[in-house]
Write a structure and sequence with these properties.
The complex is a heterodimer of chains A (350) and B (91). With 350 residues, chain A is an alpha+beta fold. Helices cover 32% and strands 19% of the residues of chain A. In chain B, helix 1 links the parallel strand 2 and strand 3 (57-62). Classes of the chains: A alpha+beta (350), B alpha/beta (91).
Chain lengths: 350, 91
């Protein structure tokens, strides 16, 4: 197997094992990849019609790699995406480059943080993203390949390679990719982007956090008993939200848990406000575990016997509906020093 | 088989390291403590030993959090009052 440089952009690969050949350059995620031939990359770029393929849409640290549409298309091909997935990938990359995401920290930290990508609106349906049964798991091409393509972009363009650009102590399965759709059809509340001021037919949310933590409740027929369990998953010292009070929690309610809340008259805001009040730990416990590492100033004034919220504002508790039949929801705690971003998709050519 | 490279070009980094001074005598050594546990101990002792050996002075500063970029106010202080910075990453 040989790899020769043909030009600034192109390589000549001879042999049968593309994974091994690219690994010699430090490229790849360890899984088999589709060869990004010029023909395939040009076909991928048809997913973002009428745009400049060589425009830099984001610069990604720590390598400060220039993410052009063409480079994103290259990585989308390698991950197995179809052209209709490219606009979602481009928008996710744009979102990750927002300063409040703190991508340099996300990529370089010893924490196991990875981007969670949620696809909203018309594109979820038209491009085949799945938000129903098993949405966070395997079995759907759009979910699997878009999440993987984003990780390949972080490895190749951002330089988040384990050991050099990614100091994660243990890594985590979400670093292979975590992408799914909001299950808007099964949600009793308006689509999530509207809750954060984004009014668009299609949108993407990125949230840099831990792997999802399951919340199981098959017994309850009222919101409080369900949400008390959600709060218990949020209120633990074993996550960064405990020592960084400004962090977000993404709460992915299954349709049945969400319906129980909505039937009782609870809005999305009611849910987040209740969780803000309920997901708390005693100040003494947090101080014993962490001191006052990165608390908001007002939290510094709390007495030892007071219960401390796991985040400083109910708006930091993000509620959306994901999944299918059954009574399991998830909590995705934040890495802490990062904020989620929701962006409309402008790359659909419409 | 002809394929594209997957990494693309590199933009100009937002900052570059300044050249290191050849001699530390009379220089001011700043400690940029990133607030990680024991960082202040390690960096402080390193700076003091360097100062003892070279005749440099030690200035201590700190960032709010290891996970975010150093605040502009701290960078301004370092620019004004320090010739060499000792800092570290990770835990």
């Amino acid at each position: 197997m040989t790899v020769d440089t043909v030009s600034e952009d192109l390589l000549q690969v001879d042999g049968s094992d593309l994974v091994e050949a690219l690994a010699e350059h430090g490229w790849g995620d360890g899984l088999p990849m589709v060869a990004p031939t010029p023909t395939r990359v040009e076909a991928m770029l048809t997913g973002s019609p009428g745009t400049d393929p060589d425009e830099v849409v984001a610069v990604l640290p720590p390598r400060f790699g220039e993410a052009t549409r063409r480079i994103l298309a290259v990585n989308a091909v390698m991950a197995g995406c179809r052209p209709e997935h490219l606009p979602v990938l481009i928008t996710a990359v744009r979102a990750l480059a927002h300063p409040e995401v703190n991508l340099r920290g996300v990529n370089a930290t010893t924490h196991n943080v990875a981007p969670l990508v949620v696809v909203h609106g018309e594109v979820a349906r038209s491009a085949g993203y799945h938000g129903g049964r098993g949405a966070l798991g395997p079995g759907n091409r759009a979910n699997a390949t878009t999440g993987r393509a984003l990780r390949l972009v972080l490895l190749h363009v951002a330089g988040a390679t384990p050991g050099d650009g990614d100091a994660s102590t243990q890594g985590g399965p979400a670093k292979y990719g975590l992408c799914f759709a909001e299950n808007a059809d099964a949600s009793p509340w308006p689509i999530y982007p509207s809750a954060v001021g984004v009014d668009a037919p299609s949108a993407v949310t990125v949230h840099c956090g831990e792997a999802p933590h399951n919340v199981h409740d098959m017994e309850s027929d009222d919101p409080i008993r369900i949400l008390d369990k959600v709060a218990s998953a949020m209120a633990t010292t074993a996550q960064n939200n405990a020592c960084i009070s400004q962090g977000e929690h993404f709460v992915l309610l299954c349709p049945e848990h969400a319906a129980t809340c909505a039937v009782a008259g609870w809005s999305r805001r009611d849910v987040s406000s209740y969780l803000f009040q309920k997901a708390r730990l005693p100040a003494t416990e947090l101080k014993r575990a962490f001191g006052l590492r990165a608390w908001a100033p007002w939290m510094d004034q709390l007495a030892n016997d007071e219960l401390v919220p796991m985040t400083e504002h109910p708006d930091n508790i993000r509620i959306m509906v994901v999944g299918g039949p059954g009574k399991h929801s998830s909590v995705v705690p934040s890495w802490g020093m990062t904020r989620s971003v929701t962006l409309p998709i402008h790359e659909l050519g419409d | 088989m002809l394929i594209y490279r997957p990494d693309g070009g590199v933009a100009q980094p937002p900052a570059q390291l300044a050249p290191s001074p050849a001699v530390l005598a009379g220089r001011r050594i700043g400690i940029l403590d990133n607030q990680k546990p024991n960082a202040n101990v390690l960096l402080g002792q390193l700076a003091e030993r360097l100062a003892d050996r070279t005749g440099a002075n030690v200035v201590r500063t700190e960032t709010k959090n290891a996970a975010t970029a150093c605040e502009d106010q701290v960078l301004g202080l370092l620019t004004e009052e320090v010739d060499v910075i000792l800092t570290g990453t990770a835990d």
